[in-house]
Amino acid sequence: MSLPSKTSAIALKLSKRLLVSHLLVAVLTLLIVAEARGLLWGYGFLFVFILLLTWGTSRLMLSEEHSRWARTVKTMAGRVDEHVEEVQRERKQSSVILAALVEGVVAVDHESRILLLNPAAEKLFGVNSQLGRGRPSLEILRQSSLQDVIQRTLQSGQAVTEEIAIHSPEEKTLLVHALPVSYEEGRVGALAAFHDISEIRKLENIRREFVANVSHELRTPLTSIKGYTETLLSGALEDPMHNRAFVQTIQDHTNQLHRLIEDVLALSAIEAKKVEYRWEAIALQDVAARLIKGLAPMAKAKNVTVDNQLAADLPKVRADKDKLAQILMNLIDNAIKFNRDGGHVEINATPGKGVMTLTVKDTAAGIAPSDLPRIFERFYRANKAHTHDIVGTGLGLAIVKHLTEAHQGTITVESIVGKGSTFILTLPLA
Q: Do 181 and 189 touch, CB atoms closer than 8 A?
């Protein structure tokens, strides 16, 4: 029952109990007098007194003044009831809106103590609003950069917008909008809203690195092409001992540029999800055998042996044939290209519960632990001192990662410096 309904009920009960209490008092008085005196006239006097008391009370309850008072109380109770319901409805709406917000919201009082944390803020900072309410924001949120924004807002009475970094419970970049707000008794607190821009900043960094790396990768072959072309035009074209070598170098760098542009376009299409896939049941061993045969001349030139241990009776995988060939081509090509002289490459596969696990193991120099987390980034090369002369675009493993994820698979790497690396690919079975 709401507060106004209770008020009306209490008023009615008081009116009724007023009459009953008068009757009880009169009866009790009558009994006491009768017991004490034992006189007949006492009974008559008290009986008349009861009648008069009852009549007066009834007239009071039925009087116009009493009726006006009852109507006024009823009207006021109805208005209070409506007001309370409206407040409860608005409070419920506010709670639903705050809970639905993706952005975190924190409200503090004039002493920077927590008044409110919405669910997004609880998740963002790893805290509980019930336990944090009324406690200092720095103690609960544990973010000095955020506390600085809140303090400046409280002291200046002006809105503050700033980008901050937090390191717990995980590293994130936040855009904070804090503004002063008035609350009880004219006091001024602060309301801060947080927008997670970590992904935006990450993408911006990737874009900057991509542009810088592409520029670097393009500059080297273009410089060589330009230099050899100028040499030929300045007279070397008539030199039969060197002109063919110069033209061959120009062709090699042109091919390098072509591969780079093709890989950049392929990666851009994959990331933009503009690549069409034709899913079918593919025999992994057939695709691998064809690729190994095509790479045999390169393996022979590098003096690397390739051991294909894929069994003929392996179950088929669900894949796009061309994209699967592109994945395996990159992995096997890298295992040969970066291997040592007289090295070894081993290819194996094991069917599991719903997936096929394929491994490409080499005996190259290996990858340092610090390089492993970044090995699938665009243009990232491990062991730069040993691989700067090896032809490649630096995009192969990035393409492998994106194509593997498009196949609902995974790609990881294990490596021991000085012993080699093992790339582990999982693909769903057909």
A: yes
